Amino acid sequence: MPQPNLPFSSSALNTEILQKTEPVSIPAHTEILRPGQYISSIPLVTKGLLKVITKTEEKELLLYYIEPQQSCIMSYLAYSQNSPSQIFAYSEEPSEVMLLPVSELPKWSVDYPELNRWFMSLFTQRYTDLLDTIHHILFNTLDVRVYDYLKEKCRLLQTNPIKISHRQIAEELGTAREVVSRVIKKLEYTEKLENTKTGIKIV
């Protein structure tokens, strides 16, 4: 079995991770983490795609995706503060992850400064993503948000057209399915999208 592709240049750190963890295969649409759980390991994605969302009783909002060679910064923050998770994490497609045991992180952080720099770069990236999300919500119309969301989804899943329901789009953008359906029709009318037998296609 080929070794997972890890994001670190330090061969010693890669060796430690491979010795102390095992690749875990996760089926698509599997819940990995929910609010209230304490963190025993932090996922490092080597294949596939995870998504992180926040929920209320009525709505949910997509926070960010975790691509290969990335990890969940919200899980890392919960671990570092010894506090329970505040987010949900799901596999968006069949995925493989290395579960970094938090019991090893203090030692690895001292022995391998690259690990700290990696987590800090992820934090910076997620902060930028959050600012982009706020900008979209405050300043962009919903048709722009839906179109940009679908373009990014196609990029992440490397497919166009994309098989996705109006309900899922609405849930991840924190709006109503009926509203999304109207927006999709508008985007079709302006020839930015096309509904096909295999899904929604970015034109």
TrEMBL record:
It comes from the Bacteria. SUPFAM superfamilies: cAMP-binding domain-like, Winged helix' DNA-binding domain. InterPro entries: cNMP-bd_dom, cNMP-bd_dom_sf, HTH_CRP, RmlC-like_jellyroll, WH-like_DNA-bd_sf, WH_DNA-bd_sf. GO terms for molecular function: DNA binding. One of its GO terms (biological process) is regulation of DNA-templated transcription. Pfam families: HTH_Crp_2. Keywords: DNA-binding, Transcription, Transcription regulation. Residues 140-203 form the HTH crp-type domain. This is HTH crp-type domain-containing protein.
